[in-house]
Design brief:
- The structure is a homodimer.
- With about 400 residues, chain A is of the alpha+beta class.
- Helices cover about 35% and strands about 25% of the residues of chain A.
- In chain A, strands 1, 2, 3, 4, 5, 6, 14, 15 and 16 form a 9-stranded mixed beta sheet that branches. In chain A, strands 7, 9, 10, 12 and 13 form a 5-stranded antiparallel beta sheet that branches.
- In chain A, strand 1 and strand 2 form a beta hairpin.
- The radius of gyration of chain A is 22 Å and the shape is globular.
- Chains A and B meet through strand 8, helix 8, strand 9, strand 10 and strand 11 of A and strand 8, helix 8, strand 9, strand 10 and strand 11 of B.
- Bound molecules: N-(aminocarbonyl)-beta-alanine (2 copies).
- Chains A, B: Pfam families: M20_dimer, Peptidase_M20.
């Protein structure tokens, strides 16, 4: 049905762009590497005969025209950006896998009723510009253009300037219009499919998330001449909070995850008691009520910890989004397809956010997962068996074909 | 005896170089601000009639020639660099205070037997290039030239290149030769003088220190899709260690101080479990045996904490130096001077390192402290009463006069 060797060759070529010494890849959004990856993707789509365009957020599209040009289109894709020292599958597999499915359709002489559009969304990871999924969020009304354009990376570079610098600022008129369905294939990034030995995951929804920035303020002092008893060390306090958040998440329920991924101290030198410590919290839960309850519990935990001291703290929400449930219709279609192909499959909920989460706001969205070896992702060890990938892309091929002809 | 208004005016002018919005100063070693501060200091020394020179580490000297040019010289000074968002007294007071003392000697027609040399040492703080006190360490045989020249700041800039860039790379032949005594006046940077309402501290010695770099290695993973139970979070482990180190220091003895001032995670993004966490430890103790025992205790504490887990850790020593005892003779001279001037004084041990610590290796060194309001230093609130400063500089004036004539 599909040409797995061709997909594998493209994945290998793409993996060279931003390759790290240990077999991973660093391809931050709107970086020089991202630019090269985008150009290669556009070149491949044009070779396949797709009609390419770029919108004002740098999202890239490639259209296979359907027989009925007036009908809402079927869309499929994911993202090309990665986290620092990320893996070779997160995002890119969904983009190049969709390209493979469409190229196979063309080769097999299929002429779909509806147009099929490939898409690669900008800054899905949120690793360079927070929050994550800026490109898909922008075209689905989650963020204003001004908000997106003024996002700053940690070096002070603005989204808009960087988008222009890599020459991928396209036209507002190129954003998606009427979309009848959106399908995203992605690696699971967790252990469930592997544990249950399933090749395909049918994703019923995505956990809600809350991203927060915490600042603990104490007193900067000399590390050599300030007795321990006279200190208000913001890092020691932050360390207590980080431990408590981790314990809290471990003991709350199996679906709660909370992570402190980034931390900085000020003045940040070896011989000063840190006056200020800032850190991030990424908290997720698949249940809406538990998400909002958990956010309050975290804030309370921080408050309680700081209250007992002469330090102070602030918690700023960067971005919160409630859990999303995908289209039942699409899940059913995916399940039927897996059955008829005898692919071992499993229904699950994604802990990770995806562009499909925002696309669900404007259309019927659905996701297919393939297993992650040892559940690893956002690291260089990220990997997936090629037999599983083949099952996933063949499923995608059939699902797109059906959606484009109904 | 001295002109406190002139000193105050110079301190005010110097404080403008690198001034921060909240009344502090950021003047990192070998920065553009350091260059301007150095030039101003050289200009002032030349106006006073001193013979200036710069050595191959950027240490700056200004000589008041004595009647007997062949005799070992008396030296006084400190440093002009600061920590980020530091205060207006740390270092610069010892430099400009010594200039004031020497200018007053000249004005009063004193012709000392020995030459008196002012000095401002390079990179005392260790805030830009670790370890601290590179300039004084280099000229006292603590570090090789190659070691100093290849020190890197956190942006990858080399000491040597930066020294050349600010045009302060002088001649090796300009290093100090025979020195009969070295005196450094400094702010206490701790609370003791203020608590006991003394204007002058006679410093008997400096605590030993050990600077270490710790790395905790776990496993980077996706923050949304990795269950809490499957994580090896290096930051959660580091947080436990940081808390334990702080508790250990609090409970060990009153003289133990241990500080974690800097911490970074990798990949360092909001949505990845930190695979690696690096942090610094600054541990000090005035007793030699306790210093080395404490270092082992810290290493053991880290080992024990990590042993229970599937994470690993390494501890690298950046620099360790045993406690230093200053010259009894100089302490006695200082005490006699304070008594005859009726300055309230107190003997103490410095928790902070100072250039005098290394100068003690090549001559008889001694230090005078003036109180720090609320014990604050390495922060923008750093402050000292001008009456106390006057007591300190008048003491310095007499001590230098006596040392230069014996
Ligand atoms: N799937 C994925 O890695 N998305 C990045 C944004 C997130 O962490 O939810
Ligand atoms: N006095 C002072 O702040 N020195 C910096 C080096 C050290 O921390 O010991």
């Amino acid at each position: 049905m599909i040409n797995i060797d061709r997909l594998r060759a493209r994945m290998t070529e793409m993996a060279k762009i931003g390759a790290t010494p240990n077999g991973g890849v660093t391809r931050l959004a709107l970086s020089e590497e991202d630019k090269r990856a985008r150009k290669l993707f556009v070149k491949w789509m044009e070779e396949v005969g797709l009609d390419t365009r770029v919108d004002d957020f740098g999202n890239i599209y490639g259209k296979l025209h359907g027989l009925e040009r007036g009908l809402p289109v079927v869309m499929a894709g994911s993202h090309l950006d990665t986290v620092p020292k990320g893996g070779n599958f997160d995002g890119v597999l969904g983009v190049l896998g969709a390209l493979e499915a469409v190229e196979s359709l063309i080769e097999q002489g299929v002429k779909p009723l509806r147009s099929i559009e490939l898409v690669s969304f900008t800054n899905e990871e949120g690793a360079r510009f927070t929050p994550q999924m800026l490109g898909s969020g922008a075209v689905t009304g989650q963020f204003t253009k001004d908000y997106v354009y003024t996002r700053e990376d940690n070096k002070g570079f603005l989204f808009k300037d960087e988008l222009e610098a890599i020459d991928f600022k396209g036209e507002e008129s190129n954003r998606p219009r009427e979309v009848s369905a959106f399908i995203e294939l992605h690696i699971e990034q967790g252990p469930m499919l592997e544990i249950e030995q399933k090749s395909v995951g049918i994703v019923e929804g995505i956990a809600g998330f809350s991203w927060m920035q915490v600042e603990v303020a104490g007193q900067s002092d000399h590390s050599g001449s300030t007795p321990m008893s006279m200190r208000n060390d913001s890092l020691v306090k932050a360390a207590a909070i980080i431990q408590k958040i981790s314990l809290w998440a471990e003991n709350r329920d199996e679906q709660t995850v909370a992570t402190v991924g980034n931390i900085t101290t000020s003045p940040g030198i070896i011989n000063a008691v840190p006056g200020e410590t800032k850190f991030t919290i990424d908290f997720r839960h698949p249940n809406r009520e538990e998400l909002y309850k958990g956010m309050e519990e975290i804030k309370q935990l921080i408050k309680t910890e700081v209250e007992e001291s002469s330090l102070s703290s602030t918690v700023k929400e960067i971005r919160t989004h409630q859990p999303v449930h995908f289209s039942n219709e699409i899940c059913t279609l995916m399940e039927g397809t897996c059955r008829s192909l005898s692919h071992p499959y499993k229904h699950l909920i994604s802990g990770a956010g995806h562009d499909a989460m925002y696309m669900q706001h404007i259309t019927n969205a659905g996701m297919l997962f393939v297993p992650s070896i040892n559940g690893k992702s956002h690291c260089e060890e990220e990997n997936t068996e090629w037999e599983d990938i083949e099952c996933g892309i063949v499923t995608l091929f059939h699902v797109l074909n059906k959606l484009a002809n109904q």
